[in-house]
C-alpha cells in the first residue's frame, strides 16, 4: 500500500529512520560517565539516548547533571566512524523510502560530523533532496526554523501540503509550529516511554502508514 499523499515529506533521522546497536550506546555512556565521575545505568543511558524522558536537558537537570558538561563529554567521546558502523536502517524505513514519489528531506539534531558518515555508509545521501542539521544558529526542534529551512531547500510551493515524521515530541512540535502535519513514530512503546506523544497520527513503524 502506498503512503498517504503529501506533496513533500520531512523526516527525523536518529530513532526514526535509523538507530544504533545497544552495545554502542553502552560504551558511549561508560566513557561519558568516566568524564563526569558518574555511572549511568542501562535504563538512564537508554532514556537519554532515545529521549524517552522528554527533553534531554530537562532530564539531565532532574538527575542533577550539568547540561553543558554532559554534552561536551558526549561529543568528545563519540567516534563518527564507530557510530556509523553501529548504525542500522530500520527495515520499514527502507521500504518506505523506496515507496515515496515526492520530495523528501531530513531535519535532525544529529550534527554533520556524525550524520554525514551515517548517510554515506547506509547509502542514503542521494535519497534525500535536503538535509538540515540543527544548530544553535539555525534552531532546534520544536523551533520551526530548521523545518522551514528544509522546506526552502526542497523548493516546494507555499501551497504544498507537507508532513514531518519523528520519534520525539519535539518533532511533532516542530511540524505544527511550521504549519505541517506531525506524525509520531513510537519505536519503543508507550510503556517504556512512560507517556504518549500527541500527533496527527501515531504509528509504531512506517508500515502503519
TrEMBL record:
Molecular functions per Gene Ontology: phosphoglycolate phosphatase activity
What is the scientific name of the source organism? Halococcus saccharolyticus DSM 5350
NCBIfam families in alphabetical order: HAD-SF-IA-v1 (TIGR01549)
Query: What is the protein named?
Result: Phosphatase
Gene3D superfamilies xrefs: HAD superfamily/HAD-like, Putative phosphatase, domain 2
Q: Which family is it part of?
A: Belongs to the HAD-like hydrolase superfamily.
List the SUPFAM superfamilies: HAD-like
GO biological process terms, alphabetically, are: DNA repair
